[in-house]
Amino acid sequence: MADLIRWDPFAGLSNLHSQIDDMFNGMHGFTNWPETGANSLAMDVYKENDKELVAEIHAPGFSKEDININVNNGILEIKGEKHEREKSKAKARNYMLRESHSSFYRSIMLPKNVNGDKVKARYVDGVLKITMPLTALPNPKHIAIEQS
User: Fold this and answer.
1) Whole-angstrom Cα Rg for the chain
2) What number is the average pLDDT over the span 98-114?
């Protein structure tokens, strides 16, 4: 008698997780999802009020000279890189493990109503606060339908 083949409705799901991961990894760079990983610090973006958008990054150990902020074509870019300060040989350390960030990069696509020319930044106690003023969006233009 011939062997019966059993249908398993879940057979195709065993690799689903890795297929979804591959799909999203292939999309990296085509979305404005935040970067995460070893070279990024956590960033909070929120509306302070109806007049400004705020981005905050906790970047302890960096100085304001280590941080570079640009607004270009509607994208906010924040780069930080610690430069080794000159240390005397007496204070030199022999690290066995060092996990402090030496650089970071974050970028976000800004809404169209952010005025990129008036962006301001402050760095106090290890927190970088970038304030971006919002302009009023233009009202939609009503189009009348003509008689034919």
Assistant:
1) 25
2) 83
Residues 79-95 pLDDT 10s: 998 866 555 544 667 77
Order of strands across the sheet with 43-49? 43-49, 52-58, 127-133, 120-124
Over residues 36-69, the pLDDT tens digits come to: 555 678 889 999 888 999 999 998 888 899 999 9
CB atoms within 10 A of CB 104: 23
pLDDT at 139: 83
Q: Is 106 exposed, middle or buried (0-12, 13-18, 19+ CB in 10 A)?
A: buried
Structure tokens at 16: 């689903």
Dihedral sign for Cα atoms in the order 15, 18, 23, 24:
positive
Structure tokens at 75: 């994208």
Ordered DSSP codes for the chain:
-PPPPPP-TTGGGTTHHHHHHHHHHHTTTSS-PPP-STT---EEEEEEETTEEEEEEE-TT--GGGEEEEEETTEEEEEEEPPPPP--GGG----S---S-SEEEEEEEPPTTB-GGG-EEEEETTEEEEEEEBPPPPPPPP-PPPP-
